[in-house]
Here is the input.
Amino acid sequence: MRYAKRGRLRFTSHRDISRAVERAVRRAGIPVAFSAGFTPHPKISYAGAAPTGVASEAEYLELGLTDIRDPARVRADLDAALPPGLDIVDVAEAPAGTSLADRLQASEWRIRLDGVRPDTAETAVNTFMAADEIEVERLTKKGRRRFDARAAVSACGLDRRAPETADAPSAILRMVVRHAVPAVRPDDVLAGLRQVAGLAPPSPPLVTRLAQGLLDEATGELADPLDPDREAVPPPGEDAMAAHGAVPRPAGTESADVVSTRP
Here is the structure.
């Protein structure tokens, strides 16, 4: 499943999201499978969750069922049982033995920097991309850790398609970041931009994950990770056409104006 985290739900922790999904599965009457043992748990696994405070149009989870269900019906029933802002966007039936996590090689991010002129942001990005290595520091559960924030960034540039406003300057960056160990997050890239080019937005950046998937090194594009499942398992019944396409997002639910935590 692909789901979105929009609006105020961007501040919801991953633990709270998992609880909301479990409750929604029960309300929707979806025949979820459970693990064995003394404390059975529903077979729901999450891959590459976005940090708290960051919006996303491309979060993924795997749901194990005890019976076959039409993907379009599962999407509709589960989406109706979830709170607004936590939206099921797409569902596909997966063949046994496949792993969704293996297809999430990189993420595409959109970062809006209010109070930053586009030419200033572009100069900082060019300096960042020209560097061979940029070490940043982050506080982790094991203490402070230093790592290279540059190597994981496949592409980064100014989004010139974004509308300009005369009231205040604003720059929008789009970047593709490989999933590495340790994970390089948007705030790590922003820390690198501040370190090498002195780029320090006066207000918190607005961060949205736009996509996850397999990275084509030649084109820089990310492939839809659910496409292989659709090709391997044709959807049955009258809902076949609906199951093959991504569900259009409702008007007014775009995640362009989301606030992230500062690094």
Remarks:
- The two ends are 30 Å apart (CA to CA).
- The chain is about 25% helix and 25% strand.
